[in-house]
Amino acid sequence: MSRAIPLLTPAQLWRLLTINRVLIRHGLDEVVFALHLFRPLRFLMYLAPWNWFRRHRAGRGERIRKTLEDLGPIFIKFGQMLSTRRDLLPDDIANELARLQDRVPPFPVSEARAIIERSLEQPIDAVFARFDDTPIASASIAQVHGARLHDGREVVVKVVRPQIQRVIRRDLQLMYILAQLAERYWPEGRRLRPIEVVQEYEKTIIDELDLVREAANAAQLKRNFEGSRELYIPEVDWDHTRRDVMVMERISGIPVADMAALRARNVDFKRLSERGVEIFFTQVFRHNFFHADMHPGNIFVNAEHPEDPTYLAVDFGIVGTLSPSDQRYLAENFYAFFNRDYRRVAELHVESGWVPADTRVDEFESAIRSVCEPIFQRPLKDISFGHVLLRLFQTARRFHMQVQPQLVLLQKTLLNIEGLGRQLYPELDLWKTAKPFIERWMDEQVGLRAMIRGARKHLPRILERLPEMPELLHEALAVQSRTGHWQQAELLRLEAMREEIRRANRRTTLVLVGGALFISAAVLASFASLPSMLGITWVSWALGTAGVVLMTTGLLRP
């Protein structure tokens, strides 16, 4: 049963009219008239004056991107999230949505100061020796200002936009209404599951509003890469971090997309691109905690040592984790793929529960082979990990694979890292770089290392319980002894019940046979008065006597 579509409030109705106006401006009125509900009115699109003189029409992906940019920050972020769902979107739309830039005009510095003072419960001058009124960056959720603490440390201050929760809630409610309409009236609505897509977006954007959560993510990543030359994470200033204000160490580096500046510093691009891949696989298969928003705007390079460059990361609002089973199946999938063991890939999907248990493995194997064999006709270094994963998910969808949010985040991150790596060094052999990580992880899970790691993990708990072992052993033996006596008594009781049932069956048989003989004697006795059947009297008397004896024996027998 389809859920009821709620009535629009005046504010939502006005926002919906604004959306329609933007759709028309970018030539997307055809989207509205493509809905089953409005299809009978499709002729109005051709009568509309704005369509009379329109000569050039951009591609649908570009028109959708420009529409989302005009609708504002919440729709921009929605488009960015939607661009990661390549299992749902055609490539032309997904590629255009990936170009969405989260650039929003800054809000007044007076409001930023007021939010900081309210959150930290003290004047801004008491917290910072210097606070820069001009923001460093301004995005849909928050903006960032430079500052200096009284102890001389240079920091950045991230401040959540005022009233952003209200704006988000308003637009989310409208998105749900549009998603319900699409699911009900759009032929593709049920397959693309727009309501679930909006739910996924809601969770992501609401999480990004909590800067304490983002700071905790940053702290975890920093611990994971402590002392590493691969990735540097800025330090969180917990004393001045609240839900809508976060203070972090200020870092300086070259934006990773600034190729000219990196070349001017003679940065080793091969080492830099390989290091990006190593960071990704380290996060996924060693730490199981990965930065899931590693687009070029969030990554910088420390080029003090050009031959050994270090990545610097910011913006930790979106992170991903995998369960141990997902980790294992993902590693085995990659390994099986690059060995062209499609049977194992199909089996792994069924074993993991990603596809229904009744899926025919041979059919699934055949579908995967038909998709992936053309890929492997190219040199291994030219094979895209991200696109292999994407093709895998698209094929699995035909076999009713349910959306795995953690895998969608992983796919998005892998595509970002891979695209960045190939931009820095087009000859990057991703498989050569990734293979040692996957092989080592599998060895750690099923080999000698796994046994040693398991023993090391459980040894402290075993040693802690060692003094209790004699008492626990005694209790276990006592329980076993009591259990043995109880089981023996139960067996004796069952045997007695069986014997009683056998005796009851014998008594019942005697009574039934005796009764049958007695009834036969009575039937014969009814003919005893006939002159030709005088001998029947003696037969009936004998049968009757035998029947009475048998019934008496059966009733009285113990």
Kindly list the characteristics that best describe this protein.
558 residues; alpha+beta; 3 domains; five-stranded antiparallel beta sheet; four-stranded mixed beta sheet; 11 strands
Helical content (DSSP H or I, runs of 4+): 55-70%
Shape: elongated
Major β-sheet profile? 5 strands, antiparallel
Question: DSSP strand (E) fraction?
Answer: 5-15%
**What's the number of domains?**
3
The secondary-structure class comes to alpha+beta
In short:
With 558 residues, the chain is α+β, with helices and mostly antiparallel strands. The chain is built from 23 helices and eleven strands.
Strand-helix topology:
Layout: H1 10-25, H2 29-33, H3 43-47, H4 60-71, H5 73-83, H6 91-97, H7 109-120, H8 124-127, E1 128-131, E2 137-138, E3 142-149, E4 154-160, H9 164-185, H10 189-192, H11 194-208, H12 211-224, E5 231-232, E6 245-249, E7 254-255, H13 259-264, H14 269-287, E8 290-291, E9 299-302, E10 310-313, E11 319-320, H15 324-338, H16 342-352, H17 361-372, H18 385-398, H19 405-424, H20 430-446, H21 448-465, H22 469-525, H23 536-556
Parallel strand pairs: 5-10
Antiparallel strand pairs: 1-3, 2-3, 3-4, 4-6, 7-9, 8-11, 9-10
